[in-house]
Design goal:
The protein has 12 helices and 16 strands. By secondary structure, it is α/β, with parallel strands linked by helices. The protein has a domain of 351 residues: Rossmann fold (3-Layer(aba) Sandwich). The protein has a 6-stranded antiparallel beta sheet with strand order 2-1-4-5-6-7. The protein has a 5-stranded parallel beta sheet with strand order 10-14-15-3-16, with helices on both faces. Strand 11 and strand 12 form a beta hairpin. Helix 7 packs antiparallel against helix 9 and helix 8 crosses helix 9.
């Protein structure tokens, strides 16, 4: 089941107007001289599919968006990507089957990335990794993306007569081979996953072995006792510790009875004195807190009393003032009539009752409160003084009782206490020795754990390698068959093209690259467009075999940029090249799509394919005037 992949339409939205190109034919040739934008169009297709296509100056200066109408398997999408550096990582998508506008997808890897969408349409997982198969690698491998699949679909001008699928870049070799195996069903996602796990496990095994050896060497260099010696020393320390505990318990039993009735009485008195001392200190704290509270309340009452005095004084002063002029508007007040018993200033009735009695009552209340508080403060001060005196008395009593007890017990207890101290020191030394040897044993346990972990990792790695070998053995016959079929097809195409100097052509059984006369194609002559012709033979052979096998996910789509640029005057080779492409397209009508950019076309085949002709008057971005021949730098030499 080869995967149908077609570019149905390309729309370029420039500031000068839109430009559309429909590509309905199985074989389309973009014709025109150098500098009219053929490579620009191919690179824009790569750009629209999420790649890092080289953008020509006319694109960066005038083009805003690019839209591709793409068919992949059963899916049809409208992909729109901006050229603006601020927006280029965002792709707008419409599902042309359902007419639904999908959420925007990102160019960068992520859950909603364009790569995931395209890989899913191809029927491929997006989380596969291409692990190196050298047996020495410890890396899981780089992720296989649509960009890697696209290297089997696009032959750029910069590589047409130099390299095949970037095979000269050694760091990409694992991915190139993995993509070949994937597209021809020589491996599956499960096998890729196992290879990645095997490499990761290999790294874990190496790390575990290194860690084990470093700790083992450290123990040897530090003259650490062996496990057996440490265990024997630990047993001796435990025995010494047990013996010291027994001696200490025996001595404690002998020390405890050393007391008499008077000493016990002194101890009881000491306990009572200490208790009353604690109570006195607590009472002192409480009295101090009460004094602070009473002092605060006294200040509040004094403030209220002062306020009343100020108010009464102010009222008396104001009552003596006879206003003759309004203090607000300065009008005379003597000439106006004032009813009897009313205020001359505000004309309100005078208050019938005086507030003097009320103020006098409140003042008396506040003074009585102050007197009561003074008495309470005096009482609290006296209580605090009594408490401090009691504390001093109890402290002297405690000191006297402690001294008396020390005198009575010194002669009886001190010698035994010295023996008790010696035994305690022996016990502490035994515990220290125990901790030391337990630490040594823990280090050896760590070494043992590391050895066991390393062994477990080695078993898992060996088991995984066996599973990989078994799966590869199951696929070996298919690999031999596929490589043989591609070799036969490739050799037949090379013979039809009559590539100069090539007597036999085949495909390498492990790196899947062309062999010319038994040698790698890179070691063969590069003159006369040899690599270009080999490219066409190689890629068309892959498509032809994929179409015959049907059960492979190979996308039957091919972009080729400027094959005749390297062929120069090799007319026979050029004719053979186009004959091969025409034959492949006609034999598989509706199943393949081949798009070629070229500057001149063989006259004999111009009616066998669709043709879009560009010129300096009608360039690719024809909405923008072409600057003229010789004014454009070829895109192949422009760095993006």
């Amino acid at each position: 089941m080869t995967t149908k992949f077609r570019i149905e339409k390309v729309s370029i939205h420039s500031t000068e107007g839109p430009v559309d190109y429909a590509l309905p034919s199985d074989l389309t040739v973009l014709a025109g001289p150098t500098g009219v934008g053929k490579t620009t169009l191919l690179e824009l297709i790569k750009w629209g599919l999420g790649g890092d296509g080289q953008l020509a100056p006319v694109v960066t200066e005038y083009v805003q968006d690019l839209t591709l109408e793409v068919s992949i398997g059963d899916d049809r999408f409208l992909l729109s990507r901006s050229v603006d550096p601020q927006k280029r990582n965002n792709v707008r998508i419409v599902n042309l089957v359902t007419g639904e506008r999908l959420p925007d997808h990102q160019i960068k890897q992520g859950e909603s990335s364009l790569n995931n969408l395209l890989m899913a349409s191809l029927g491929l997982p997006s989380d596969m990794r291409a692990a190196a198969q050298t047996g020495r690698s410890t890396k899981a491998g780089a992720r296989i993306t649509f960009a890697d699949i696209f290297t089997y679909m696009y032959v750029p001008q910069a590589e047409i007569n130099r390299d095949i699928a970037r095979s000269q870049e050694s760091y990409l070799e694992p991915k190139r081979k993995a993509v070949f195996e994937l597209l021809f069903a020589l491996a599956d996602p499960e096998l890729f996953e196992k290879r990645s796990q095997a490499n990761t496990l290999k790294g874990a095994v190496d790390e575990a072995e290194d860690h084990y050896q470093k700790i083992l060497q450290f123990l040897r260099d530090s003259n650490t006792q062996s496990r057996e010696e440490a265990q024997q020393a630990l047993d001796r320390a435990l025995n010494a510790q047990q013996e010291a505990r027994q001696q200490r318990a025996h001595l404690r039993d002998r020390i405890d009875p050393v007391t008499d009735r008077e000493t016990q009485t002194l101890r009881d008195l000491l306990n009572e004195a200490e208790r009353t001392l604690a109570d006195a200190r607590k009472a002192e704290v409480n009295l101090s807190r009460q004094k602070d509270e009473l002092s605060s309340e006294r200040r509040r009452v004094q403030a209220d009393l002062a306020r009343l005095n100020r108010m009464r004084d102010a009222g008396e002063r104001l009552a003596q003032i006879e206003f003759t002029t309004c203090p607000r508007c300065m009008q005379a007040l003597k000439k106006r009539e004032v009813p009897k018993g009313h205020c001359r200033l505000c004309l309100l009735p005078d208050e019938a009752a005086s507030t003097d009695e009320l103020d006098h009552y409140e003042t008396i209340q506040l003074k009585e409160q102050l007197e009561e508080m003074e008495k309470q403060l005096a009482f609290v001060d006296q209580q605090a003084l009594n408490a401090r005196q009691l504390i001093l008395d109890r402290q002297k009593l405690v000191q006297h009782l402690e001294a008396a007890i020390d005198v009575r017990t010194a002669e009886r207890v001190s010698p035994r206490l010295q023996a008790y101290s010696d035994i305690s020191e022996n016990l502490a030394a035994s515990r220290t020795a125990q901790e030391h040897f337990e630490n040594v044993l823990q280090q050896w346990d760590r070494v043992s754990d590391l050895a066991q972990a390393e062994e477990e990792l080695r078993k898992r790695y060996a088991r995984l390698v066996r599973e990989i070998d078994q799966r590869e053995l199951e696929l070996k016959s298919r690999r031999v068959y596929i490589v043989r079929e591609i070799s036969k097809e490739f050799n037949r195409v090379v013979a039809d093209l009559q590539i100069p100097g090539v007597e036999e052509a085949s495909i390498h059984e492990s790196n899947y690259l062309p062999l010319l006369n038994g040698k790698p194609f890179r070691q063969f002559s590069r003159g006369g467009g040899i690599v270009t012709a080999t490219q066409v033979a190689y890629w068309t052979a892959l498509i032809a075999v994929a179409l015959r096998e049907r059960d492979v996910p190979y996308p039957t789509f091919l972009l080729i940029d400027s094959p005749r640029l390297a062929l120069n005057e090799e007319q026979d080779l050029t004719s053979g090249l186009y004959r091969r492409l025409v034959t492949l397209a006609e034999a598989n009508a509706g199943k393949v799509q081949i798009i070629i950019a070229d500057h001149e076309l063989p006259a004999a085949y111009r009616k066998n394919y669709a043709q879009i002709v560009f010129s300096y008057n009608e360039p690719t971005v024809k909405s923008v005037k072409h600057p003229g021949k010789g004014q454009v730098k070829p895109l192949a030499s422009v760095s993006n």
